[in-house]
Write a structure and sequence with these properties.
The complex is a heterodimer of chains A (about 150) and B (about 140). With about 150 residues, chain A is mostly helical. Chain A has 2 domains: about 70 residues, no CATH class; about 40 residues, no CATH class. Chain A contains 6 helices and no strands. The longest helix of chain A has 21 residues. The radius of gyration of chain A is 18 Å and the shape is globular. In chain B, about 25% of the residues are buried. A two-stranded antiparallel sheet of chain B has the order 1-2. Chain B is built from 6 helices and 2 strands. Chain B has one domain: Cytochrome c-like domain (Cytochrome Bc1 Complex, Chain D, domain 2). With about 140 residues, chain B is mainly alpha-helical. The longest helix of chain B is centred in the N-terminal third of the chain and has 17 residues. In chain B, helix 2 packs antiparallel against helix 6. Chain B is globular, with a radius of gyration of 19 Å. The chains are: A mainly alpha (about 150), B mainly alpha (about 140). Chains A and B meet through loops of A and helix 5 of B.
């Protein structure tokens, strides 16, 4: 009996570990400059969510960053870009002419969020698809696991 | 008056106390003095900064969509919110947030960005000095 319980417990643990890997992801790659600069105005979006070519384009245009000037000095820029490139997505870049700049426009993002209701997107507490933390309560710590997902109702 | 060993001990203690403080490169007043020097050099007839002018500047949209107050609110001693992302912004007035205007690199970085966003150009030393004079006049 005891053996059975142990088997069930370890099976559950294995299953939940597999689940965390498959759906809600936890991104652990971090860098002090990336964290302090990129998290000034929004959460520091995980490097893994865009391919290296996207990060290069993004870091090359920080003075016109989605309608605001987010420029940093050249040394800081180089350090952050190196970190982003090293930890970037390794998916095959999408077949479009220009590098994708918005995480929310990637195929992966759209597929992952296809169950989110239209009224949720319009909720003032969500405000913008860029506001990961509106539902992913631990997004600030790179934790996008389903366990910490709370969709405003 | 004090035994030499006691003096050494006190000196050591105060050295520890100093290093335990967060690294503040300069006071907001020193930052203001820097703006004053730059304004004296660049603005003919410059006499002194004005809190009233700074407040008006801070709350005006300068012909665009945003003012400083759009994100920092009408009361710079209060917590602000990024107008696009909703990210919380700590109070800007030094009376409410002792870290403000103590790191010259940070000060220049944010003036560059925010002046571009609000005015579509860099701010002059006179404008920066007026705004900081206003912010320093805001009570906690």
């Amino acid at each position: 009996m005891r053996k059975h319980i142990l088997t069930v417990v370890s099976l559950c643990a294995m299953l939940s570990a597999a689940g965390a890997q498959a759906s809600g992801e936890v991104f652990t790659a971090t860098n002090p400059q990336w964290k302090s600069e990129c998290a000034s105005c929004h959460i520091a979006y995980p490097a893994r969510l865009l391919p290296a070519e996207s990060w290069r384009a993004l870091m090359g245009g920080l003075d016109k960053h989605f309608g605001t000037d987010a420029s940093v000095d050249a040394v800081t820029n180089a350090e952050i870009l190196a970190f982003l490139e090293k930890n970037a997505s390794r998916r095959k870049p999408e077949p479009i002419a220009k590098p994708m700049l918005r995480i929310t426009e990637t195929r992966w993002y759209i597929k992952e969020h296809d169950e989110v209701a239209a009224r949720t997107w319009k909720d003032p507490r969500v405000k913008s698809a860029a506001n990961c933390a509106a539902c992913h309560t631990q997004a600030e710590n790179g934790d996008f696991s389903e366990r910490n997902l709370r969709v405003p109702k | 008056m004090f035994h030499p060993r006691k003096i050494i001990g006190m000196t050591l203690l105060s050295a520890i106390a100093v290093t335990a403080q967060p690294a503040l490169a300069q006071t907001p007043e020193q930052t203001l003095a820097g703006f004053k020097q730059a304004a004296t050099e660049s603005t003919p007839g410059f006499r002194e900064f004005s809190a009233a002018r700074g407040e008006q500047f801070f709350k005006s949209t300068h012909g665009g969509d945003w003012s400083c107050a759009t994100c920092h609110t009408q009361n710079p001693a209060a917590q602000g919110k990024h107008t696009k992302t909703d990210k919380l912004i700590k109070p800007l007035a030094p009376a409410a947030n002792a870290e403000r205007f103590t790191d010259p690199t940070k000060v220049e970085k944010w003036f560059k960005r925010n002046c571009n966003d609000v005015l579509n150009r860099a701010c002059t030393p006179l404008e920066k000095g007026d705004v900081l004079t206003f912010l320093l006049s805001v009570p906690k």
